[in-house]
Amino acid sequence: MNMNRFDFIKQIFLSGAAALVAKHAVAGAQERRKEIYLNSLYIAGFQYYNGPELEKLLKENDKLTLQRQAENPHDYFAVEIFYKSQKLGYLPRTDNKIIARMMDQGERLKAKIGSIAPDAHPFSRVKVRVYLEKG
Questions:
Q1: In terms of C-beta density within 10 A (0-12 exposed, 13-18 middle, 19 or more buried), how is residue 63 classed?
Q2: Structural fold of domain 35-134
Q3: Could you give phi then psi for residue 70, rounded to 5 degrees?
Q4: How far apart are CA 47 and CA 53, in angstroms?
Q5: Looking at the DSSP assignment, which residues form a beta bridge with residue 67?
Q6: Where are the alpha helices (DSSP H) in the chain?
Q7: Long-range contacts at 73-81 (CB < 8 A, ≥ 24 apart)
Q8: pLDDT in tens, the chain (135 residues)
Q9: Pick from 76, 78, 75, 55: nearest CA to 67
């Protein structure tokens, strides 16, 4: 009978240890995936695309998609910004070169809405934060 108690206690201890190890493994995986802040930029061309129609739906921290547009005849380093499948505009030409080169090298970049100022001039209405995703 004592052996069964010992086995029972051992099983409880090992189950707890396994749960603890699993918890730390998940936390470790989350820690390895890091966002490295790169820049905050206003959306260029916001008023010429779907920005004005979508503005009321946009919220801070909404996820955005960046898409490289190297074939753009006006800007070889063009990077488009999308909310879901709707184009909001571009990263400004004055600040897009490094981000475009990173995208060309296969780096995983992500973007979020940083702030929205509905009464501001269209060029400075929506600010985007760009991050490099590592891990």
A1: exposed
A2: Alpha-Beta Plaits (3.30.70)
A3: -65, -25
A4: 9
A5: 80
A6: 2-32, 51-54, 97-104
A7: 76/100, 77/101, 79/103, 81/43, 81/111, 81/128
A8: 455 665 656 565 555 545 555 555 555 555 567 899 999 999 999 889 888 888 889 999 999 999 999 999 999 999 999 999 999 999 999 999 999 999 999 999 999 999 999 888 878 899 999 999 987
A9: 78
Say if pTM beats, i.e. exceeds, 0.70: yes
DSSP state of 43: P
CA nearest neighbour of 112 among 98, 132, 94: 132
CA dist 36 to 39, 101, 133, Å? 10, 16, 6
Distance of CA 114 to the CA centre of its chain: 11
Domain ranges of the chain: 1-32, 35-134
Q: Which tokens in the block code for residue 112?
A: 């979020």
